[in-house]
Amino acid sequence: MGKIRKKALKAKNATSLLEEEIFKLVASDYTLEVKEFIKDNPHLKLVLVNYPHNEQQLASLSAELVQAGKKINNIILLSITNYELILSLKEEYLICPICEKIYNQKEVVKENEKFVCPRDSEYQLSLVATKKYSDYIIEYYLKNTELVIKKFLTTNKLSPSSVIQLTVQKKEEILAGEIQKNLIKIIDNFKNFYNLLREKNKLEKERDKALSKLLQSIIDWEVFGGSERKKVLEEYKKVMADIKVIQQHLELELAGEVADKAEF
């Protein structure tokens, strides 16, 4: 989401941000920017990080995705159940308002009391405003996450299993990259699953054609010779065997996903 947010700021020729403008970043609607990305990359699966933040953003994004023939299929929820850990993170770390990544205060605060993102020094933000933003965004997430998920499930008519939860027990999991690795693993599993699903759909279309041809050979018994009927039957059997293999792979992917959820 950081890339989209930065692109939107550049489009407005914004070179600096006041405190009130920083807070507005949270509630800003980036549906048009997402739409533009989908238009430029129609065949890619899109993964949105830290977006949408609220029900209004979700409704706007979902409506636009419907027009593009797409929808949100899954949510990966990062959960910190230990409130003491949340307080510890708030004291030691800052969340960049632009890229929304977390950084140790000692590494990003300059002598002039400005916050400078290590990934992008183009924007130097007020330290006071950045601290307020960090506190605000955490509280904002805690307040809105449940509402967004409920809206997501009802809008897309999905079961709670569409939400995969990663629970953080200690800050080292974030800082050492363990959470990032688990996220990548889940996303890769999604890619494999949907690739298999597309292949299954393709084979089912081939099955329908083969079945139609097989039935026609039975109806037109005199037209189709014995060797021709045998060939049609073999084509149908092959497609059914391929579908069975794909179905087995899909079941293994689903079983792996359940195991991953239990592990995480």
TrEMBL record:
Organism: Racocetra fulgida
UniProt-recorded name of the protein: 9407_t:CDS:1
Domain of life: Eukaryota
Gene3D superfamilies cross-referenced by the UniProt entry: P-loop containing nucleotide triphosphate hydrolases
